[in-house]
């Protein structure tokens, strides 16, 4: 599937719509989730146009992948989330309910986050 340049995170990266920016470097941008699921809920996205974890892990350059995951760790540290703990996750595709087709990692922190996954 081709990357959709009109997705909402592409618009944030181009500065067409605002975000609550918490971190930015050459490879990544981090901003607060608009609908937080925890006291701290931040999204980290690569600046490259990758639609999913699958796309990024296949097609991202070594520099993009290294820079991105260093940024995720730095954001979590800068948020003060390391000592008490945090969760990061990425939804990939339909079964995971990925809503925005630009690869992103969620960072959750600030409370006991419970078990890893809801059983149904
Ligand atoms: P996912 O289901 O993993 O694709 O998650 C997409 C996330 O993006 C959701 O948690 C939304 O609340 C969040 N989101 C959607 N639009 C915005 C926006 N304009 N600014 C910040 N977060 C957003």
Keywords for this entry:
globular; 120 residues; five-stranded antiparallel beta sheet; binds adenosine monophosphate; alpha+beta; 3 helices; HIT family, subunit A
Reading the helices and strands in chain order gives: HEEEHHEE
Bound molecules: adenosine monophosphate
Main beta-sheet strand count, sense and barrel state: 5 strands, antiparallel
CATH class: Alpha Beta
**Helix run count:** 3
Shape: globular
Mind telling me the C-alpha Rg?
14 Å
CATH topology: HIT family, subunit A
Low-confidence stretches: none
How widely separated are the two ends? 30 Å
What percent of residues adopt helix (DSSP H or I)?
A: 25-40%
Strand order of the largest sheet: 1-2-3-5-4
Structure report:
Helices cover 25% and strands 21% of the residues. With 120 residues, it is α+β, with helices and mostly antiparallel strands. It has one domain (8-109): HIT family, subunit A (2-Layer Sandwich). The chain has a 5-stranded antiparallel beta sheet, covered by helices on one side. A hairpin with a 3-residue loop joins strand 1 (21-24) and strand 2 (28-32). 27% of the residues are buried. The model has no long low-confidence stretch (mean pLDDT 97). The protein binds adenosine monophosphate. The site of adenosine monophosphate has 12 residues, from loops.
């Amino acid at each position: 599937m081709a990357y959709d340049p009109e997705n909402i995170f592409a618009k944030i990266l181009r500065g067409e719509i605002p975000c609550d920016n918490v971190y930015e470097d050459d490879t990544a941008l981090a901003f607060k989730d608009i609908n937080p699921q925890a006291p701290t809920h931040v999204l980290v996205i690569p600046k490259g146009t990758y639609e999913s974890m699958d796309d990024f892990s296949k097609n991202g350059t070594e520099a993009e992948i290294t820079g991105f995951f260093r940024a995720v760790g730095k954001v979590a540290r800068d948020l003060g989330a390391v000592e008490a703990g945090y969760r990061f996750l990425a939804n990939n595709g339909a079964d995971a309910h990925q809503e925005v087709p630009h690869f992103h990692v969620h960072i959750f922190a600030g409370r006991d986050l419970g078990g890893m996954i809801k059983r149904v």
